[in-house]
Amino acid sequence: MASQPARRKSFIDSSIRLARNNNFHGLDLDWEYPSTTTEIANYGTLLTEWRAAVANESQTTGRVALLLTAAVFRSSDYYSLPLPVQKISNSLDWINVMTYDFYGPGWSPSFTAPPAGLYNVTASQINGDAGIRAWIQSGFPANKIALGLPFYGYAWRLVNSNNNGLFAAANGAAISTYGDVSYGQIKSFIANNSARCVFNGTVVTDYCYSGTTWIGYDDVRSVSTKVGFPSMVSMNIIVGAIHNQQLRRSFIKFIQRS
Question: Which residue ranges does the record assign to the GH18 domain (predicted)?
Fold first, then answer.
């Protein structure tokens, strides 16, 4: 779609109609991810044209312009390919940085790891702090950045139940095919299995384990720490993947209290 002008226009026009017909305040683009030089260039063009169309629609109808946002990669470059930071900044009201899904048994099956760690104890720069700072250092306005919080986790199967910390040897996914587990499932697992729960303040992550099942996720202390993190860089918070409405309300209330 993004590579062809006619298809871009069709997508943009239909998205605006959809938003207006449903009384939305705005639109969020979730492209995971533009991963080649050509796709990245097309991504920048799509955002630029989207913003122009939204501005034109607002001017023509007299209605308040729709908000435009996007879920973006954890860093301002996609594995050394720079993203069009200036076009993204000019086109979007803010970005929702996907500071989660760093590790999971589907793509890192041989060891446990923090799916959404704020910091890291290894040399890797796969963590929320490094990603956010990369966006800011690229010139993107900090006040247009939102830090993502996942309301789910990933479950690994431990090789040895006695080796149960971060970066312990693992053998693929537990609980589900790809290891993904909702927050509600995690809480049920803890209660039903008398699982031990650990908060790691160095990485800022939670994990729990029972037998050979190990789950990495964000619980109260991780979320509380992360809610305080954006104030250091004048940014915001977003919450990802809460499918249960009651849990959603509880989680939002918790963030507000934090």
Answer: 1-258
| Crossing angle of the two packed helices 183-193 and 245-257, in degrees rounded to 10 | 90
Q: Please state, in angstroms and rounded to a whole number, the distance separating the CA atoms of residues 75 and 82.
A: 9
At 250, list the tokens.
Answer: 């509880």
Look at residue 242 and tell me whether its pLDDT is greater than 70. no
- Whether the model clears a pTM of 0.70, i.e. scores above it, the answer is yes
Gap between the Cα atoms of 147 and 232, Å rounded: 12
| 222 vs 236, more confident | 222
CA distances from 69 to 21, 102, 158 (A): 19, 22, 39
Q: Which two tokens stand for residue 109?
A: 């099956």
How many CB atoms sit inside 10 A of residue 139's CB? 10
Q: CA 156, 160, 165 angle in degrees (round to 5)?
A: 65
Give which of 204, 206, 165 is closest to 189, Cα–Cα: 206
Query: 160-214, pLDDT tens digit by residue?
Result: 999 999 999 999 999 999 999 999 999 999 999 999 999 999 999 999 999 999 9
The residue among 238 and 115 whose pLDDT is bigger is: 115
Q: 18-39 burial string, b = 16+ CB within 10 Å, else e?
A: ebeeeeeeebebebebbeeeeb
Which amino acids are annotated catalytic?
32
